[in-house]
Design a protein that fits this description.
Length: 143
């Protein structure tokens, strides 16, 4: 299990992402080592996040995605669960041990996306997934 200090840093990362003053698509990355969670990085642009996910990595990420159109902008929060394609089955099972802690910390989210290929986390794929999860979507209003 993760230490109290690890959990505190992860919680601070969550609060950073949820902060109103952060108007860009900020994120926090939590790496999984054995059965412990570690606050790894945070950033201001979604594309930066993807550069930190390798084929041998296991991680969770929490990101703010700005949705909407020119008239109405909305913040949606997504939890990403990343298991690289080179991670063994035994290590994948360890990740489930940490999932309970992650679900408690990141309980405010519109969608959970589990991925092992970066194409599954492309911003357009994530946006489409959030639109489907969000119900009504009226698109852009044109007069």
């Amino acid at each position: 299990m993760s230490t109290e200090n690890d959990i505190k840093k992860i919680t601070e990362g969550r609060d950073y992402v949820r902060a109103v003053e952060n108007e860009s698509q900020v994120w926090v990355l939590i790496s999984v080592h054995k059965d412990k969670l570690k606050h790894s990085k945070r950033g201001r642009e979604y594309e930066e996040l993807l550069q930190n996910l390798g084929s041998g990595d296991m991680a969770f990420a929490y990101a703010k995605i700005i949705m909407g159109d020119e008239i109405s902008k909305r913040e949606k929060f997504v939890l990403l669960s990343w298991v690289g394609s080179d991670v063994s089955a035994v290590k994948k099972a360890r990740m489930m041990v940490c999932r309970g802690e992650i679900d408690k910390i990141f309980d405010q989210r519109a969608k959970v996306i589990e991925a092992s290929d970066l194409s599954e986390l492309d911003i357009s794929v994530v946006r489409q997934s959030l639109v489907k999860a969000g119900g009504a979507d009226y698109g852009s209003s044109v007069s």
